[in-house]
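Case 275 in the screening queue. Each case pairs one protein sequence with one candidate compound; here the compound is zinc ion. For every case the pipeline is the same: read the inputs, emit a complex structure as tokens, and attach any notable structural observations.

Predict complex for case 275.
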Amino acid sequence: MDKLIITVAPNGSVARKEHTPHVPVTPDELVEDAIKCWKAGAAVLHFHARDKDQNPCLDYDFFERALTGIRANTDLIVQISTGARLGATREDRIRAVALKPDMMSLNVGSVNFPRGGVYVNLPADAEYWAAAMQEHGVKPEIECFDLSHIEAGARLMDMGLIRRPALFNFVLGVKHALSYSPEHLLHMIRSIPRSPGDAMWNVIGIGPHQLKTTALAIVLGGHCRVGIEDNLYYSYQVLATNAQLVERAVRLAGELQREVATPREARGMLGIEGS
Ligand code: ZN
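Case 275 output:
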């Protein structure tokens, strides 16, 4: 099996300080947390921007300060979210591509979300974002909340808008979207393009499912994402730090005899240039 790539998503757009004191919401907090997660064994860091009231935003300056700080202190692969904000245009959502992060999330299909109604990602917008990422040398992570999103990602590959190996990221356990089950995960794995070198997969489990999807990724040969964006808890009623969640994934991989990729090794596997 390939080595395990551990992605950490430390903040997201939902968790606030009143939910957990461990969520980083400023660029400085994010850099400090990133260093801890890097030392713990993460290879990729996926993050969102917040405004001064902790609300999610697409502030270019926040993205730039966090990216610069993380790069100055670690060799992490940095992935910036293009997640929707109320009233954001498709141009707003991809603006940070000019910062040339290593990766950005690419939403290829719409989905109902617990808050905020429909998360709209039209096919034409996905093509626009994928083309912008390609132009700036940014690797997309294809977000799959549904089986049809895998097909949408494969279509972008066929159009030449996504370079191989494509990274498909399965999201299981979002309320109103695809629920968590091992069967759903297996079906998604079987549904990605299967020619050698075509595709890799990563999995997110929301809330208590994070631990299970991490274990499944380790034994099934995929890759995993942990962190407070998807899950606040280490165990029942016990809040986690991001580094603790990374450390646990590393320990699980060790017990299951799967080696963990360094950021440099992960770059090679994902076909990302850089240090
Ligand atoms: Zn995110």
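Case 275 observations:
- The pocket of zinc ion is lined by residues 9, 12, 46, 48, 81, 83, 229 (CB under 6 Å).
- The chain has a mean pLDDT of 96.
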